[in-house]
Write a structure and sequence with these properties.
The protein is mainly α and 271 residues long. It contains 12 helices and no strands. The longest helix has 29 residues, at 148-176. The protein is elongated.
């Protein structure tokens, strides 16, 4: 019974609000409409505010009220999590009001809207890459802004996401095994080049070594010595670049195993 009454109450309130909004939209008094749009905005009824702003803005275009209206209209989209539309509106705001005191804020918010569209790691990361590009442009344009610190943190988050996506692609080659080990080794090596400051550089290098070792093992005998030598070369590079790594002993073990394989191949050749 209580649930039924709650549903009825909610329907009555919704109908009442919808009826009131309808009356506002039908009004011929544009000043009244603007007042109601502002009221809806303050009340955080962003969908209502958006509809009324959208209806009345053409009448105020060119007036001293238009910029503030467009600003709030833009945030209506943002607060409803319509980030694609909000990004476009923030961009339009910066183009239409280049001398606004809110210019820096809206340039940042445009970047932030791209960030909010950044999907899970496994999906297309176009929005993530775009976020990095736009945030860097924002920092270059506003180096003294108080938003620079946050912009840098967001870029770090986006780079970590792109790094993880690239890592997963390399790991997939590795997990597929067989002659995909060579593709995995190249992918892990590329990952290191793309993210030279990564804290996981030694892990990527060791995975490169492992992949090349497994690839060498699967190779035809005539190619094995050359490919085990490649493993040794990668192990030597590991020692130079990550001498203090806790993974160094494992890299040395792969070097020793590869040298042993080459010795075995040499003996068989002599026989």
């Amino acid at each position: 019974m209580r649930f039924f009454l709650s549903v009825i109450t909610a329907l009555v309130l919704f109908t009442s609000c919808a009826s009131k909004l309808g009356k506002v939209l039908k009004s011929k008094d544009n000043e009244y409409k603007l007042k109601m749009a502002e009221q809806y905005y303050v009340q955080k009824k962003y969908m209502n505010a958006q509809q009324v702003f959208e209806d009345v803005m053409p009448y105020f275009r060119g007036s001293d009220k238009y910029e503030d209206m467009f600003y709030k209209y833009t945030y209506c989209a943002y607060y409803q999590k319509d980030y694609m539309n909000a990004e476009s509106l923030f961009k339009t705001y910066t183009e239409n009001f280049p001398n606004s005191v809110r210019l820096e804020e809206c340039e940042y918010m445009r970047c932030y809207c791209y960030y909010k569209q950044s999907p899970k790691v496994d999906l297309d990361q176009t929005a993530t890459s775009k976020t990095i590009s736009l945030m860097q442009a924002f920092i270059n344009t506003h180096p003294q802004s108080e938003r620079v610190k946050q912009a840098n943190l967001i870029m770090d988050t986006c780079r970590a996401k792109l790094e993880m996506k690239e890592f997963k692609a390399a790991q997939l080659y590795y997990d597929m095994g067989g002659y995909n080990y060579r593709a995995a080794a190249i992918a892990f090596s590329t990952l290191m080049d793309d993210y030279p400051d990564s804290e996981k550089g030694d892990e990527y290098k060791l995975l490169t070594i492992k992949a090349y070792y497994k690839y060498a093992e699967l190779s035809v005998v005539d190619k094995q010595q050359e490919r085990f030598e490649k493993v040794i070369s990668e192990c030597n590079d590991f020692k130079e670049r990550f001498a203090g790594s806790k993974l160094a002993p494992e890299a040395e073990a792969y070097k020793a195993m590869s040298e042993g394989k080459i010795k075995g191949l040499t003996k068989n050749t002599i026989k």
